[in-house]
Amino acid sequence: MSLASSEKTAGKWYLQHSELLKQRESMGDDVASPMHLAEVRSRAQSELRVLGLPSAQSEDWKYTNLRDVENGTFELASRDVVSSVTNENFSTRALPLAESYRIATVDGFVSSEHSDDFQEYPKGVRVCSFAQLQMDSNADLRAIYDRVYTSLSPVSSDAVSALSASYVQDGIVITVARNTTVEVPVYIQHMVSRTSESVASFPRVVVVLEEGAHLQVVEHFAGARDAVAGFITSVAEVVVGKNAEVQYYQIGEDLPQQQRISRIHIRQERDSRAKTFSFTFGGKLVRNEVFPTLAGEGAFTGMYGLSVLKDTQHVDNFTVLDHAVPHCESDERYKGIYDDSSKGVFCGTIIVRPDAQKTNAIQNNQGLLLSDRASLATKPQLKIWADDVKCTHGATVGQLDQDQLFYLRSRGIGQRDARNMLVRAFAGDVTREIPLHDLREYLDDRVVEKLSL
Asked: Is a pLDDT exceeding 60 seen at residue 46?
């Protein structure tokens, strides 16, 4: 395709893309990036010129329209915005974790002044920003970065990968050495700055667990109370070594007008365990993508999601789980609670490759509609090319059970409390999978608070 025809294909987005490119180039590659990033960026930008933004013409984006992103005008974040966010902004929007190692970002830039000292992590744990990868003391981390960055999310694979790699300016690398257990979670708090412009930001995370390592990561998307909402594209690439275990959370409490695409790629080796949690409470439009690949026998992955929306909010949970080898198990549970005129989408695909015999895979999606105007489009899919497997999937959409509500009312429980109990029980099927007690309690309460029950 010629450049002229690709510009036409991309339409308005290409014009905006060109402006962002000019901003990116005016900053220079020395703002944050290791040299490798510039080479990847060049390839990604070439792909993005051809691909443009995803559209509803694609089956994968059938129910989610990025028109407001395509027609919007966004400024590319700059590092000087870090100083616009105060410690108070971070503390008032922080999750109530009893203990954690905090990494703070502002519009995608890692903020050392708001983060815990990277040198204070336990033995066997290495953390640094992309900006620090060029330091000689981080040569080993740079080698890991070179091996993993864009390997799970290649820039040629789709528009989201190309978009992220085109504009990423900073990110985080976390490695956990063999047989090292990190007792408390690493808390990545993504903050939207208080600028007067709508900002486009592109956070990146690279996580590598060596054999027998254990780690919990909590990514949290929020914003300063008076921030102007913008557009976020975040990508995490996670490698889970043999017999290692990771729990990866993404919790969205985005600003009311925020639009965000978040993606997690996970590659699991033999006998590893991974659990991902996607929670959505805010934002105008949010798309959560989770792509695990079970690449080693005996691996297990659990995928859990809960969306709680009201007004005209929109969430799209899109998952592709790849059983690539034999003797692996997976458990996927996504639930949504939708009030007012909010809309949910679930599209979950389980792939079982020809050699992946003895696979055991379960997928379930349930939606609870609290309003006649709320809706959920659900599309569970199985693509199975092996014959000796156990795979089930199902989806249900409904309202509060009136018989259960009547039963509770007949026991002297008020209407509001009865609704509260039923909604909590519905959400609890997901939240009870969370081993972090303080986080689990917070999310249970957040469900009720969000819906003003």
From this structure: yes
